[in-house]
# Entry
Amino acid sequence: MPQHFTISEYGHIRQRIDYALSERVNTLSEVFVSESAFASLKQLAFKINADAVLSFTIQKGRECLRVKNYVGLLQTPDGTQIEILPKIARDENPIQARMCLLKMLRHVPDLPFHTLTQAHLHHANLPLWEVFVAAFITEMEKLTQQGIQKSYITVEDKQPFLRGKWLLNRQNHLHPETLYVAHDEFLTDILPNQLLKTCLLFLVKRSTHLSNQTRLRQLRFTWDEVGISENTPTDFVKIKGVMRHFNRYVKALQWAKVILSQQSWANSGKDVNDSLLFPTERLFENYVAKGFKTYLTDFEVVYQDNLHYLIDEKKKKKQFSLRPDLVL
# Structure
């Protein structure tokens, strides 16, 4: 069963063997993970550009990793999940911090977090991962109630009679009693459904919350006739051309793509997955910008504008380009 830890940004990650030597001040200030998980995270800290997420230090002769200004989820090859929450107060409350993070995530562009409802925010007592799982399940249940979409698939098969098109070039002339034919069947076993089924089976193994597990098993039974994707990154590229026929699938597939990005480490068994980490400052800026756009309706609100200069006098050259977070 995957182990789950919760820590705040700028907190410390230590090895389990150092637990007895620790001077614990706050439950969110440090966590103690297995030696294998620590080794994987240490390897990440020394990768190019990864020092923005983690830094490696030695404290009192003991190895230590420090989380920087990122929030979200870190997952290691052995299944360890480290949830990193924003540091919003000195007296840290994980539920309050998680609620704050979920609210900010709802304003991340091009990702499915905007589908997080007020009901999901009320589940802030659950780990962040389980909230994401619940959001995916909600979208899957909607699709199931509406009916799993079908499409015509060309099936090649050997038949004792002519059905569809006779593939003469593939015919085995030693057995003329059997015809090699191609015909169309109206099936649920199509690529968008396969990607959702793959995500469903992945979460059955990775979710630990009882309510989520119960709902996942019910969905697994309903989607039993659908196969799985053999190559999810490639298949997500393939479905772009047919998505106009699957408008109601968009939200569920967005969640599936985010969640299945975690499979890269599950398959290879080598790398830490940091695809669900977000720079805290960027999240906060997006959240504030959305607030300005919502409440200052008489203003044009522009986020990260690069059209302004510190010196911009008439008949003189513009100097010192600016990139303010917000322009009203």
The chain has ten helices and 15 strands.
